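Hey, I'm writing a tutorial for new members on how sequence and structure tokens pair up, and I'd like a real worked example in the thread rather than a made-up one. If someone can provide the structure for the chain below, I'll link this post from the tutorial.
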Amino acid sequence: MVRSTTIFRVSDALPLAASVDDESTEKALIEYKQQSKLVFRRLNANSEPACSIESGQYTLHYLIVGPVIYMCICDASYPRKLAFSYLDELSKEFQRSYEGKIESVTRPYAFMGFDTFISKTTRLYRDSRTLTQGTTAPPSGPSPHLDQLNDNLKDVTRIMTKNMEDLLWRGDSLDRMSSLSTSLRAESAKYRKAARQINIDALLRKWAPIGGIGLFFVVFIWWRFF
């Protein structure tokens, strides 16, 4: 089932709205939510528009639509088709409700009132067996018929799946490589400067005695004959 939902802004990973999770869910998912923040800080408009990220007993699914990232944390066994249809439904309602306001907000969770729709949609998608069998939805759900929703489930065969540990490690490695590359460039510049100085010192040691003798003879001849 869908355990938790958060909606972020792509440009700066500012959280715009989220589900209201109970204390036990919040405690169980705290590590996964921290991981999701690390991932979303690295996303931009050119990132994969949809992806599933596996992390232990849970899978994090995200969908980028325009300037917004829609993310949900689900049980690892929860069908991907349902997860992305759930996110797609959130994206349509969120864009309809807040279009034109998303880029201007500056405080976190500025659209926290959207949790009402999140809650209703989460209840609709709670039982994956009911959804996939096409049973009629309860009156409180946002869609009138689950059989219609079942016909419109998103095709997720081409959506990429990644592992959270590999993703974070790769990102950390890229950061480390960038730091090492900067350090190596600095060290290389120092080495070149030191090498030039060593060459100059070697030339001075080689030619200074000869130059000194030549200068002595020039001064002697000038003094002797002029």
